[in-house]
Write a structure and sequence with these properties.
Layout (H helix, E strand, L loop, with lengths): L22 H17 L7 E3 L4 E4 L5 E4 L12 H13 L15 H14 L3 E5 L2 H13 L10 E5 L4 H4 L2 H4 L5 E4 L4 H8 L5 E6 L10 H11 L2 E5 L13 H4 L9 E6 L9 E5 L2 H10 L1 H4 L6 H14 L2 H20 L11 E7 L1 H13 L2 E2 L1 E3 L9 E6 L6 H12 L4 H14 L1
Parallel strand pairs: 3-12, 5-6, 5-7, 7-8, 8-9
Antiparallel strand pairs: 1-2, 2-3, 4-10, 9-10, 11-14, 13-14
Helix pairs in contact: 2-12, 3-12, 13-15, 14-16
């Protein structure tokens, strides 16, 4: 839903603010498709983890290749990362250091933040239990003007920004004006900047459904108008960059006081937790003093901290480049076999558009039967009528498995499942 408002209109002429969420209607529309996906074993799957991105489905014992987990470099299974997770609790004999971080921080966590700041070459890093907690802590402070010299900015959200960003829109509107603009709409964003107001832009670095932010073009708007940029690069971290600094940071000469990059310590990084990369001590101090998920919540558990420290060590060695190269090779193989709208991108998410929800679920069921577990996505993850299959390519996938997946994707043998699904859907209408 696009809530964009034309700033050239008078207040009386502005369109009324639309609701940011309508959960009851969303559930009404999507419930039949969720029911079908769960019934066919495409969601809510319990599994045992095997090697080479394989899993065993607990209920059936069937072994399949997994394309849903986002461990892009397989660091989540790296022996050094796993060993460090265990050893960390020997150093700090506590699974969960249960205290507000404004009071105490276990030394390994402080060491981790300093290590990451140096690794990614930024002024400071603040670590949170999740990326969602990082966003929840920082975005209200942005709306309040704490990062923009006391001036509350007009905040423009990208229409495709992740739900962990957009979820906060109603809260942010208590502080300042918030609008939603079309995906990567730089022209609209520049018009907002030309209005004379302080403007902040919020979006993803690497989008969870494919594609990426125009980072260099956003930097140009920063240089020209003072635009504040907040990008969540959860899916870009580790997979690109000399030290795995991610999609966004690798395209910037430096991180200044007008930029915040959120990122994941899970996914490509291979541990657990979230972080904020910060370009100024002032912003770092504001977050450590006023972010509710920092002052009134707890740190990541000690196993996650130990794992993150071990992953940081790997990021500083040539082993990272070897893993990145293996990932690129698998991405290039996939692109050569199955062209998609993001073919050629160095980012590892690939989307095969289906359109009809029933057909997408049937295709996902067919792939599962053939030994390939992919994510079937439909409304509200994507707009109605734009259902798709989502695949996370990793360095640990076997090229032969990717080839087999491509053959199954091209196959039309799922047609019978579509007919059965359509008949079942008709009975529910």
């Amino acid at each position: 839903m696009n809530n964009a408002v034309d700033l050239n209109k008078s207040q009386d002429e502005k369109a009324p603010q639309l609701k940011a969420r309508n959960a009851s209607r969303m559930a009404e529309i999507s419930r039949p498709h969720f029911d079908a996906a769960y019934e066919k074993g495409l969601m809510g799957v319990s599994c045992r983890v095997l090697d080479n991105r394989r899993i065993e489905i607990a209920t059936s014992g069937k072994e399949v290749i997994d394309y849903t987990r986002c461990g892009y470099l397989n660091l989540d299974s790296h022996p050094k990362v796993l060993a460090a997770a265990k050893a960390s609790m020997d150093e700090i004999p506590s699974v969960h250091f249960s205290v507000a971080r404004t009071r105490l921080s276990a030394e390994p966590l402080v060491r981790l933040e300093h290590t990451l700041a140096k690794l990614f070459d930024v002024n400071g890093v603040v670590v949170f239990p999740t990326v969602a907690a990082a966003n929840m802590g920082a975005l209200p402070l942005l709306a309040a003007g704490l990062f923009t010299d006391g001036e509350k900015p007009l905040i423009a959200f990208d229409r495709f920004a992740h739900v962990t960003l957009q979820y906060h829109i109603p809260v942010l509107r208590e502080e300042t004006e918030v609008i939603v603009i079309e995906h990567n709409d730089l022209e609209h964003l520049e018009r907002l900047c030309q209005s004379g107001r302080k403007v902040a832009y919020v979006g993803d670095g690497a989008y969870s459904m494919g594609g990426a932010a125009p980072v260099r073009e956003l930097r140009a708007l920063q240089d020209k108008y003072g635009l504040f940029v907040y990008l969540d690069d959860a899916h870009g971290i580790s997979v690109v960059g000399q030290h795995g600094e991610g999609f966004v940071r690798s395209q910037l000469d430096g991180l200044d006081e007008k930029t915040i990059v959120a990122a994941s310590l899970g996914k490509g990084y291979g541990a657990a937790g979230g972080l904020l990369m910060l370009g100024s001590k002032h912003i770092e101090n504001s977050i450590r003093r006023y972010a509710p998920t920092y002052g009134f919540s707890c740190a990541p558990n000690m196993a996650a901290v130990g794992a993150a420290l071990a992953s940081a060590e790997i990021h500083a060695t040539p082993e990272l480049h070897k893993l990145q190269r293996s990932l690129r090779n698998n991405i290039q193989l996939f692109d050569s076999l199955i062209p998609t709208e993001t073919s050629g991108s160095e980012l590892p998410i690939r989307i095969v558009r289906i359109g009809n929800e029933v057909e997408a679920i049937a295709k996902g069921e067919y792939l599962l039967q053939q030994g390939h577990y992919t994510s079937v996505v439909f409304f509200p993850t994507v707009p109605r009528g734009q259902a798709a299959l989502r695949m996370a390519i990793t360095s640990a996938h076997n090229p032969a498995d990717i080839l087999d997946l491509s053959l199954m994707l091209k196959s039309s043998d799922h047609a019978g499942l579509v007919s059965a699904g359509q008949a079942a859907a008709a009975l529910t209408i």
